[in-house]
Design a protein that fits this description.
The complex is a heterodimer of chains A (about 90) and B (about 575).
Chain A (H helix, E strand, L loop, with lengths): L1 E6 L8 H12 L4 E6 L2 E4 L3 H6 L7 E7 L3 H13 L6
Antiparallel strand pairs in A: 1-4, 2-3, 2-4
Chain B lengths: L6 E4 L1 E4 L2 E9 L16 H30 L1 H14 L2 H14 L3 H18 L3 H21 L11 E6 L4 H7 L3 E7 L7 H9 L3 E3 L4 H4 L5 E5 L4 E4 L3 H22 L15 E6 L5 H6 L4 E6 L13 H15 L3 E5 L25 H6 L1 H13 L6 E5 L5 H20 L10 E5 L2 H5 L1 H5 L4 E4 L1 H9 L17 H16 L4 E3 L7 H9 L4 E4 L4 H9 L3 H11 L5 H15 L10
Parallel strand pairs in B: 3-4, 4-5, 5-6, 9-10, 9-16, 10-11, 11-12, 12-13, 13-14, 14-15, 15-16
Antiparallel strand pairs in B: 1-8, 2-6, 3-7, 7-8
Helix pairs in contact in B: 1-2, 1-5, 2-5, 3-4, 4-5, 6-7, 11-13, 13-14, 19-20, 19-21, 19-22
The chains are: A alpha+beta (about 90), B alpha/beta (about 575).
């Protein structure tokens, strides 16, 4: 299991488009992926769940990856956050 | 033949155009959901029902999406893509299927229960955008439930109609547009609601926020919709019909000509170039500003960042927004105003005051809460790297405040230098002139700064001691009061005396009746709302500066507002005879 803390960098936060991009990437892996914000734990493979997070720019999230390809998944997802979902 | 009474309702103009036609009432079908226990043998059947309903819903939405893409373009159609993604959310569907089997409840109940949980979380958010998303989710939820109940949505009808409804979802708006829709009219909604935005993209006239249109209308009633003025008339008389027909012809004719102006500069007949820019509050408005052919942003109101939140945004959050706007506008200029809170612009931190317009607001808060002010200045400075960002302070009353604010600007610069963060070292600093004492002292203030900007809304209120929001006295709020005209003249003269430019960003700058006066007084920049920009440009392009100066000189001599206004109106009518001046004038 891998756990990582991240801070949302892109301007719009986890709005619809970034949420969709995140879920799409997550779906390519077998491992479980959870996002934890405050007391809320959300399945990172669920678009409606990720939309619910209302994670704004600057908010910090905990990410948990668990499964056979967790290393590769963590790299892909963290990269996405790092690049600010390739948004302006 | 028609003994029904004429009824006029006022709402919010959401999409331009005047049309007449017959009402088609659309009553939104909200599916009823009952909780039922099913027998274990039927669980699989129930899951199948749901699977079919989801498939059908997806087909419906895909159709709407592709239709929307053709009609309004890919990027605007994106909202439907998000709805389709929710329908495909494996985690969500899995949870619903599992509950049906485990709890032995009917599919529509579980769908309703499960999706509502997420909606609640979205509605709890401080973020307006997020709360809007809850409505999109509502559309998905109702769509699945309707399909479980196997009801078909009737969205096709014969003939040309005006849709009258309590509210419209984006999907409704798009679906109906496959018919011959003349206009949309709704009880609810504002200019920024999705349905309003879509009707503008579809170029279908719309009036929203009418509150009780559905109460007054019957199926098939003849009606007029005025998407310019935001009015709706049910059962209009012959005279009213004629009146709107004439008005419509004038608008169409006028708009056609305005369109041709978009790419032309705001220049007088004798070559005097005016900077004609726009007022905005959100980064998303920059595109509308571009579309109108603006020279830049003459007033960016940072208060948009405070909407729906209890705390001030961090420097970082502000920087991202300011930087986005500055970049979107580059190479054109953006004048950013520091937070103007207090007065009528309440933020939750502001304490309750007996007399907020004369209270703790604008720069006064900035100077008393330097940590907030300096953070904002740093954010603006950081966004100034391309040298197209100017900063101005609201509600300044005296020179001392300007000096104090400048010290804080210096402080912000030093802290950025220490952090090796780049910014425009020569950033232009200006002051909004909206307090009478600042107007009187315009020369001394001009001596301290790089530009002045006249905020007429507050200046007129303070100068004439009239609260515009107070119905008892609001008619005394008069833009062309001689005291107002002379004060503006004084400010411009003082600014030019000190060799700095002066702009106007209040409503008066966007009033066609004021254009010749302001032009003649040699205002350097007019900053207006995007919608009126073409009209103002047209007037500027129709006159010589010499003539405008003559008109302004004459206007300075009047001793009552009536005379001044009549005089200016007659000149603008002469110079731009086809301009439909507002009827309220």
């Amino acid at each position: 299991m891998i756990e990582k803390e991240i801070v949302i960098k892109n301007r719009a936060g986890l709005h619809t488009r970034p949420a969709a991009a995140l879920v799409k990437v997550a779906a390519q892996f077998k491992s479980d992926f959870y996002i934890i914000k405050d007391d809320l734990e959300i399945n990172g493979k669920s678009i409606i769940g990720v939309m619910t997070l209302a994670a704004e720019q600057g908010s910090s999230l905990k990410l948990r990856f668990d499964g056979e390809d967790e290393q590769a998944m963590a790299e892909a997802i963290l990269g996405l956050f790092e690049r600010g979902f390739d948004e302006a | 033949m028609d003994d029904k009474k004429e009824i006029l309702l006022r709402g919010i103009p959401a999409s331009a155009g005047i049309v007449m036609g017959h009402a088609h009432i659309f009553t939104k079908h909200i599916p009823r959901v009952e909780e039922k226990i099913i027998v274990a043998e039927d669980a699989q059947k129930e899951v199948e029902r749901l699977r079919h309903a989801v498939e059908r819903s997806e087909k419906e939405l895909s159709k709407i999406l592709s239709y929307a893409e053709q009609k309004i373009g890919n990027s605007k159609a994106k909202i439907f893509e998000a709805e389709i993604m929710i329908l495909n959310d494996a985690v969500l569907l899995e949870a619903i299927y599992n509950r049906i089997v485990k709890e032995l409840k009917n599919a529509e109940f579980v769908v309703h229960d499960e999706i509502t949980k997420y909606q609640r979380l979205m509605l709890e958010s401080n973020d307006e955008y997020m709360r809007e998303r809850a409505h999109d989710v509502e559309d998905v939820k109702n769509r699945i439930i309707r399909n479980i109940q196997q009801e078909k949505l009737i969205s096709r009808f014969e003939g040309r109609s005006i849709i009258v409804s309590e509210s419209l979802t984006p999907a409704d708006t798009i679906l109906f547009s496959r018919n011959e829709i003349l206009a949309y009219v709704t009880d609810m909604g504002g200019v920024t609601s999705h349905a309003a935005l879509l009707s503008r993209s579809l170029k279908i006239p719309a009036v929203v926020g009418l509150k009780e249109a559905t109460k007054h209308v019957q199926e098939g009633d003849f009606m007029i919709v005025d998407g310019y003025g935001g009015t709706v008339v049910f059962n209009p008389s012959e005279t009213t019909i004629k009146e709107y027909e004439v008005r419509n012809e004038r608008y169409i004719e006028f708009e056609k000509r305005l369109n041709d102006l978009r790419d032309l500069p705001a220049k007088t007949l004798d070559g005097h170039r005016i900077e004609l820019s726009c007022n905005i509050e959100f980064a998303s408005e920059v595109d509308a500003v571009d579309a109108q052919g603006s020279d830049g942003i003459g007033l960016y109101r940072a208060e948009g960042l405070l909407i729906g939140r209890d705390t001030f945004p961090t420097e970082e959050e502000q920087y991202v927004e300011y930087n986005l706007i500055a970049e979107k506008c580059f190479p054109r200029k953006v004048i950013m105003r520091t937070f103007d809170i207090g007065g009528d612009k309440v933020v939750s931190q502001a304490s309750e005051e007996e007399n907020p317009f004369l209270g703790w607001r604008g720069i006064r808060i900035g100077l008393d809460r330097p940590e907030i002010f300096v953070a904002q200045l740093r954010a603006m400075l950081r966004a100034s790297v391309k040298k197209n960002l100017w900063v101005m302070f609201p509600m300044v009353a005296n020179v001392k405040e300007v000096r104090k604010a400048k010290v804080l600007v210096e402080q912000a610069k030093v802290s950025l230098r220490n952090r090796h963060i780049p910014f425009d070292e020569k950033i232009k600093i200006g002051v909004m002139i909206e307090v009478p004492s600042a107007a009187v002292m315009a020369g001394e203030i001009a001596n301290e700064v790089d530009f002045l900007s006249i905020g007429t809304n507050d200046l007129i209120q303070y100068l004439l001691a009239v609260d515009r929001g107070n119905e008892n006295v609001s008619q005394l709020y008069q833009e062309f009061d001689p005291a107002v005209i002379r004060t503006i003249h004084h400010i411009i003269e003082e600014a030019h005396e000190h060799h700095i430019p002066v702009s106007m960003c209040g409503e008066m700058a966007g009033d066609p009746v004021a254009t010749l006066l302001l032009l003649g007084l040699e205002m350097d920049e007019f900053s207006v709302i995007p919608a009126v920009l073409p009209e103002i440009k047209k007037i500027i392009r129709s006159v010589r500066l010499k003539e405008a100066k003559r008109i302004a000189a004459q206007a300075l001599k009047f001793s009552t507002e009536d005379e001044a206004k009549e005089f200016l109106k007659s000149h603008v009518k002469r110079i731009s005879p086809d301009m439909p001046l507002s009827e309220a004038e």
